[in-house]
Amino acid sequence: MAICPYCKGEISFEEVERDTKGKGFFKQEIMYSCPHCKCVLGFSRGNYG
Ligand SMILES: [Zn+2]
């Protein structure tokens, strides 16, 4: 469980919106955004799901 720094909404790992960017195995980035306010929370690179 995390708290969105923008809207202070609670975000569970299941709820967080993941948007995969890039193609292929090397350039893939996953963008996480708040399901409440849609603000971008961060990026993750690579082997995640
Ligand atoms: Zn938010």
Helix content: under 10%
Instruction: Tell me the number of structural domains.
Output: 1
Described by its quaternary structure, the protein is single chain
- Shape by Cα distribution: elongated
Give the low-confidence spans: none
Give the rounded overall mean pLDDT.
83
Number of helices: 0
- Please write the string of helix (H) and strand (E) elements: EEEEE
The gyration radius over C-alpha positions equals 11 Å
Task: Write down how many β-strands occur, each being a DSSP E stretch of 2 or more residues.
Answer: 5
Distance between the termini: 18 Å
Q: Give the structural class.
A: mainly beta
Any chance you could write out the topology, listing elements then pairs?
Layout: E1 2-3, E2 10-11, E3 17-21, E4 29-33, E5 40-45
Antiparallel strand pairs: 1-2, 3-4, 4-5
Bound molecules: zinc ion (ZN).
Residues 4, 6-7, 9, 34, 36-37, 39 line the site of zinc ion (ZN).
Task: Please explain how this structure is put together.
The protein is mainly β. It has one domain (2-45). Helix content is 0%, strand content 41%. The chain contains no helices and five strands. The chain has strands spanning 2-3, 10-11, 17-21, 29-33, 40-45. It has a three-stranded antiparallel beta sheet, with no helix packed on it. A hairpin with a 7-residue loop joins strand 3 and strand 4 (29-33). It is elongated. The site of zinc ion (ZN) has 8 residues, from loops.
